Give the backbone structure.
Amino acid sequence: MVVCHERLWGVVRVKIATLADATVAGYAAQRMALESGGGRIAARELAIIVVELATNQVRHAGGGVIELETAGSEIVVCATDEGPGIADLDRSRLDHVSASPASLGCGLGAIYRLSDSVHISNRLGGGLMVRCTKRARAA
């Protein structure tokens, strides 16, 4: 069952438990970018970023939460989970690096390439937090 997103005070929050939820989060991100005046390409790139983050949450952490918020001309994405985190954050930026042999290992690289800014950190007590921004429209 897909958990629908909730929108409170301009923040869209999507609970991620399945790959179907990743699709819902991607759609919500694309819609938010378009509604804030963003172009179709930027909106699609934002959807790819969010789907990659959510897919990683499902595969590596058993799920998580994606939050989306408009901040001026940018969309801010915050992805948190309670999984094992990433042992080597610097190496994880490289393509073809993955903790899973079934993965191509290109997801985080794509997130870095498509985002305007990315901050990844392991959370105290376990889990991962990824915060990235994407300009939805010209400032």
Notes: The helical segments are 19-35, 40-61, 89-92, 107-114. DSSP finds four helices and six strands in the chain. The domain at 6-135 is CATH 3.30.565.10 (Heat Shock Protein 90).
